[in-house]
Amino acid sequence: MSPAKVKIRSPQKQELDAINQVIEAAIMTWDLPERVKRLSLASYRYNELDFKHLSIAIAEDQQGRIVGVAAWEDADPRDTPNNGKALLLHGLYVDPSHHRQGIGSLLLDAAKQAVMQQGYDGLLVKAQEDASEFFLVQGMTRLPVDDPDRHYANRFWQPADS
Fold first, then answer.
1. CATH number for the domain that contains residue 138
2. In what order do the strands lie in the sheet with 155-159?
3. Could you tell me the pLDDT band of residue 1, with boundaries at 50, 70 and 90?
4. Do residues 59 and 127 lie in contact, with contact meaning Cβ atoms separated by under 8 Å?
5. How much helix, strand and coil, in percent to the nearest 5, is found in the chain?
6. According to a count of CB atoms within 10 Å of the terminal CB, is the N or C end of the chain lower?
């Protein structure tokens, strides 16, 4: 499927089950022990309250199926370069049957557009280790771990002006 055949839009609350199915399928591909994935699933699922606190975008294929999800929120300035005002990519998930088709890039672009439109300094990502290469290829910069007790090991940054 080409990215041109995917529509990025805001979800409806009644699509929550389909959103969570994509998230669960994506998590099960992570390079982690199966038990860790199963135990952590609940913390990654979205609920109706998340619609109030997160900006969520979904990727929909030509048949109307949700094949990707991205969500973002305000970042804690202490986590950003120079204590800037940024958006934190809360999650980026693509159905495994649609990996490597440009859907993750389209969803990341939606978050980058929100950064520009809302006047933020940049976009912050805290990624799983096996997703690091994706964010580097997307032009993001790996941030140093200045404070191991506070900072996530795989943090990436993209300033708004790039």
1. 3.40.630.30
2. 7-9, 55-60, 66-74, 86-94, 122-126, 155-159, 141-142
3. low
4. no
5. 40, 25, 35
6. C
Cα within 13 Å of Cα(101), Cβ side:
19
- pLDDT beyond 80 at 23: yes
Q: State both tokens at 43.
A: 């913390």
Domain span at 37: 3-159
Taking only the tens place, the pLDDT of each residue in 124-157 is 999 888 888 999 999 999 988 776 666 678 889 9
Q: What is the pLDDT of residue 3?
A: 61
73: its two tokens = 């929120």
CA atoms of 19 and 77, how far apart (whole Å) = 29
DSSP 75-142: PPGGGSGGG--EEEEEEEEE-GGGTTSSHHHHHHHHHHHHHHHTT-SEEEEE--GGGHHHHHHTT-EE
Say what the pLDDT of residue 147 is.
Answer: 67
Number of domains in the chain: 1
Tokens standing for 27? 């998590």
Q: Which helix (H) or strand (E) holds 66?
A: strand 66-74
